[in-house]
Amino acid sequence: MTKHNPTARERIVAGAADMISRRGLNATSIRETAKHARAPLGSTYHYFPEGKQQLATEAVRHTGEWVARRLRRELEAGPVAGLRAFLDLWRKIVVDSDFRAGCPVLAVSIEEPPTDETPIALAAAADVFEEWEGLLAASLREHGAEPEQAAQLATLIVAAVEGTVAMCRAKRSTQPLDHTAEQLQALVRAAIKD
Fold it and tell me: Is the full-model pTM beyond 0.90?
């Protein structure tokens, strides 16, 4: 199997996602992102002529797709397996970064927009959260959960995990993930008919 060598554009997008996950959107500049991605500053403006919001939008979508691919794969074994994988993915991110990184989708979501208009990055974050919820809800329904319960539980899972990642960073501990995992798994098991 050949290894994919990311293009300069892909490196910039992944670098932006990483920086936003650590510093937040407002503290992430295009110049620092180019340096972090080891890409020329000019190529950053070439690939993202609309500037920081365009780059942030791509970073959010990149993260959303990356998580969704893993979630889809793990949900094939059922909602409990999917939930475990979702939790393990974020555990790995916070532990491997020494509790410095979180979720760039959440980071973009909680920062004050620069204008009264909804920035495209914020709209992309909403789409990503909806996709993750949709994947979880579909798996819950497939395993016997009532549709409304599946939708609500999926929202709870995404919200709980996102909040738990922030708590892990603040406490520099995975204890919040451990507690959240136990409770969410109990709720999922109670909702499904497997």
Answer: yes
